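Example is below:
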Amino acid sequence: KNKNVKITKGALTSQLKVVTKNTIEAKEEEKGVKKYDDIFFDIGTGKYIFTKGKSVFKHVKQNAFSMLPPHIAEVTLNRAPKVLAEYNPRTKEKRYTSDDDLECYNTFKPSKYVENRTKAYKGNIPHNIDFLIKHLIKDEKTRSVLINNLANHLQYGTSIHTGWIFSGIGGAGKSVFMDLVFKLFGSHNSQKSKLTNFTGDKVKGLPEKLIGYVDESADSKVMYEVVENLKTIIGNESYSSRALNVNEIDVKNFTMFFFTVNSFGFKLSSDDRRMNIIECNVKLAKVVDNIPNFLKDLDNEIQAFADYLLNYDVDRTLITKIVDTEFRREMITNN
């Protein structure tokens, strides 16, 4: 279709490349759509990073070519800027220079509620979300510390030096609250894990996640091991992690940990400084007439809740705060 190109038998290979290139470019221009916006080469993993809008896709080199037209695969991939890709919720910049003078590309993507924030929001916690939090957490000081820590985590992405344990009967609304937290921070920034992720000599941890959640009951021996391992992770800015068939790496700690259990199986030492414990012993169905409508109302309030937290005046001294409640003292005494 290109009248400027005359294909002969002797020049078939080189001319076909020109025809292919021109045809693909014409089609892309006609559609007004590109397969990607930028391509980077991650020196940390040896993978290419493809970006499209606000999305990031990582591909190993041999798979990368299948995504692109041939002329782009041959030229662009070889010229892709070399960067160190890292998940960094502590900065809004997509590209920056690290303290080690490395060119970095930030793969972190905030939730849609953070991206659509209202900067001048001056309201209170939305009604139904406030009701759910007060239903689960009767102690006012504990509620204040939790709200402060959620606001700090959403605003700054800094390490939270305490874990949160919601203990009580099934149906109290613990999982409803965690579903709310997952949506608030983004499901791509959250992970539900098994207890086995936190047992053994080398804890797998949750790299590149803002929220870690375990919903599982277990015998006291397993829970004790989990708590001891999590204390090490929660209290540090980074930790060693080893996934299956992957060498041990040093992982930055951005995760705020939550546990929900139907019966308290944790063994706490009297000098514990990491775990806030909440007792939840009233079923949500006893105080809410229509659960499906209540869940819809919660979803409709997430944006306002995000705006509230993003405009919250964070007290950084409360990040390490452990609230001394009667229930917490009982758990230490009984173990």
In short: The radius of gyration is 25 Å.
